[in-house]
Amino acid sequence: MSNALTDIQSVIGDYFDALYHCDTVLLEKVFHPKAVYATADETPLLHRTMAEYVPVVAKRQSPASRGEARRDVIDEIQLAGDNTAFARVRCSIGNNDFTDFLTFVREDGRWKIMAKIFQIKPREEGAA
Predict the structure, then answer these.
(1) Is residue 100 scored above 70 in pLDDT?
(2) 31 and 110 in contact (C-beta within 8 Å)?
(3) Contacts of the segment 106-110: beta carbons below 8 A, 24+ positions apart
(4) pTM for this one?
């Protein structure tokens, strides 16, 4: 099972890098093509497919290009067998802090994010 944890941590590292650099090639590598992207912090509830989500990231100015400090944290990873896992992670983009609930599936020996459900919290002014 420890190989699974190491592999999932690697995918999460790539996920953080993809968001920080707005790297859509890397983003498509870590997400399953049929993955779900959603948040209830927007009204109406925001739900996107990968075909809808990837172009949004492609249009963003990357946090890297703005020289933003990285605030990437893996809070937990839980394995639910050989092919299913869950991770709670945190990162920041612009003035927002995100908590992401990532569900993983292992297909053909590779872990992919199958669902990203996230919460947005605007960072308080002056908070580092």
Answers:
(1) yes
(2) no
(3) 106/4, 106/82, 107/32, 107/83
(4) 0.92
